[in-house]
Amino acid sequence: MQQFLRFKSLYQDRVWGGRVLETKLGRALPAGRPIGESWEIVDRAEAQSVINGGAFDGLTIRAAIEKDGAAIMGPRWDVARAFPILVKWLDCRERLSLQVHPPAAVAPELKGEPKTENWYIADCAPDSSLIVGLKRGVTREQFERAIHDNTLESCVHRFPVKAGDSILVHSGQIHAIDAGNLILEIQQNSDTTYRVYDWGRLGLDGKPRQMHVNESLKSIRWDDFEPSPVRGENKAAVIADAREFRIRRVPLAAGETLRVSAGEQARILSMVSGRVRGVSDGVEIVRGENVVLPFAGAFAFEAQEAALLLITENFS
């Protein structure tokens, strides 16, 4: 299989969303709606990516894996198993809720799914920040009092970010994204989120959004203090290495070629900036696109200008 898989985006309304996917990535968004998320690659019962072009054109990612899972994921892949990674663009016009995803040890009890995720800051306002983890020394008792006192911001670790920064957020880490961030989120295939606090905001229906305080308190890692982001640099590096996946940052100078061998593993290629062209077929991948490089394919991409890619691997 010498073709990569590209997909149609699934746009999601969010109370904190905006129109930056239109202005920064050149997307044609549904008119008049606050688009907070673009689901780029997803294989879930409630949401399916549809392949755009190539031999599997028009098929869902689920149908394609069922049809030729050995070529896409490798010969040992169970075709009944969902594609394990969910890729999203996030347009955070406003701050997101303070939330947590359940660790694997407690997720079954809560009837949820664990979710480890990586945030890559593709663009941001000058004063943008993230919230990940607790301030050093904060206890569960202090945190619970702060919920009732509406002073939770004093308990969490907030730090400034710039374009190119990245942070791996494990299940169990309390977190929120501040306003003004355009983020590429690469995550475990899960959609379980427990909101513990929403800054007094109302939902799109004009009512307070549902909170999950008890579930959050059972999920939060109380020994997780002040994690540090990976700061942006224009050099090759592993920026996330978890049990669920690994992400490599790959800068390319204009004219430089990225080669991917066949028969190793399925990978995801994410274009953060610039554009590349397939050496054999001339097909371009441009800024903002996320594509799957199947197990059976060998690929060579030449940068048409200075480009930055993320390669997600070690998930199959």
TrEMBL record:
Keywords carried by this UniProt record: Isomerase, Metal-binding, Zinc
Designated name of the protein: Mannose-6-phosphate isomerase
Binding-site list for Zn(2+): H101, E117, H175
Keyword Heme recorded: no
Cofactor(s) listed: Zn(2+)
Superkingdom as given in the UniProt entry: Bacteria
GO biological process: carbohydrate metabolic process
All copies of domain Phosphomannose isomerase type I catalytic, residue ranges: 5-109
Catalytic residues identified in the record: R195
UniProt-recorded Gene Ontology molecular function terms: mannose-6-phosphate isomerase activity; zinc ion binding
Source organism (scientific name): Nibricoccus aquaticus
Pfam families cross-referenced by the UniProt entry: PMI_typeI_cat (PF20511)
Binding note for cofactor: Binds 1 zinc ion per subunit.
Presence of the UniProt keyword Zinc in the record: yes
